[in-house]
Amino acid sequence: MHEMASGMGGIRTAGDLVARMVMKGMKLNVAKKYVADKLGCTVFDLSDSAAMKEIRESLDIGTVLVRNGASMGMDAKVKIADILDIKIPSVEGQKIR
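The structure assignment produced for this chain is given below.
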């Protein structure tokens, strides 16, 4: 229950992923479609916390509560950058040159 009540929509759904694409210059509707396509779901699923919990767990891109063996922090960001095919400055700074 705590997981469903916390998060304010960011990592609980796909708000953080869509926001990244908007910050890259995409219009909101285009960003939603892009993220949904990359995650293999519908635009409607992006705001469904139950669906996104399953999607985030299956892609290992971070959830509200830490789970044993699941990615968090920088590990999750690396996977997000790969899935969305974007560069995230904090991830790029950590790569071995």
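Interim note for the steering committee: Residues 28-39 form the longest helix (12 residues). The radius of gyration is 13 Å.
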